[in-house]
């Protein structure tokens, strides 16, 4: 499953990130939930709203996973999740609120679970006011899934301190984490030949999509 960022659609993210082409080539199922303007005018997932994560958007996303898995006979123990920006923050919130649902995760330019309880605290965390790693570790799920963590060190939208503290918190909680903190990368996803360059998608700084798919064991 892949969660798009603010102002994006599921179709745009599927194409620009390269996930659509990669899934077709390696024959794995790809689920792309899409935010609605009714929930958020900027199409951001509501990662900063605990009620939305547990009972609203989060519950709807998990129902999509269950529906697709049942319809296609997929193994629910091999469900993986990735996302960019607000999608990354949402996936981290889902891991805390609904533990055990995902076998591995790969957030790109996200905000850790436990860093925000509303819009104001979310914006503060994005600006670099993220809680200490020891505090964030309390929001890492028990038996945390392996984490592939991606963030640009030149990100001026979500401060890279978010990734730095999250990596430490995940390790403190006993989780396995690989960190990709990329010099020169702003608030964007590094893509390879399967992706389409554009706003928040850049070539020349690695192929996160292919590497994440390999991390998930999909190719």
From TrEMBL:
Plastid among keywords: no
PANTHER family in the cross-refs: BLL1128 PROTEIN, UNNAMED PRODUCT-RELATED
InterPro entries hit by this protein: AB_hydrolase_fold (IPR029058), Esterase_phb (IPR010126), Plant_Biomass_Hydrol_Est (IPR050955)
A Pfam family recorded for this sequence: Esterase_PHB
The UniProt record lists the keyword Signal: yes
Organism: Polymorphobacter multimanifer
GO molecular function: hydrolase activity
NCBIfam families: esterase_phb (TIGR01840)
The entry's keywords: Hydrolase, Signal
Name of this chain's protein: Poly(Hydroxyalkanoate) depolymerase family esterase
């Amino acid at each position: 499953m892949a969660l798009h960022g603010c102002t994006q659609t599921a179709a745009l993210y599927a194409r620009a990130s390269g996930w659509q082409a990669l899934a077709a080539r390696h024959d794995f199922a790809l689920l792309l939930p899409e935010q609605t303007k009714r929930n958020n005018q900027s199409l951001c997932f509501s990662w900063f709203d605990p009620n939305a994560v547990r009972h609203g958007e989060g519950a709807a996303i998990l129902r999509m996973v269950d529906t697709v898995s049942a319809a296609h006979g997929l193994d629910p123990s091999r469900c993986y999740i990735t996302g960019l920006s607000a999608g990354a923050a949402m996936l981290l919130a889902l891991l805390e609120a609904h533990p055990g649902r995902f076998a591995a995760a790969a957030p790109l330019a996200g905000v850790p679970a436990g860093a925000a309880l509303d819009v104001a605290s979310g914006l503060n965390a994005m600006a670099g006011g993220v809680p200490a790693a020891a505090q964030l570790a309390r929001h890492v799920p028990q038996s945390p899934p392996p984490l592939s963590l991606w963030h640009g060190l030149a990100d001026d939208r979500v401060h890279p301190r978010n990734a730095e503290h999250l990596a430490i918190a995940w390790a403190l909680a006993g989780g396995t984490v690989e960190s990709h903190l990329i010099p020169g990368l702003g608030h964007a996803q590094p893509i390879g030949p399967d992706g389409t360059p554009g706003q928040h998608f850049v070539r020349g700084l690695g192929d996160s999509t292919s590497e994440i798919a390999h991390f998930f064991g999909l190719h």
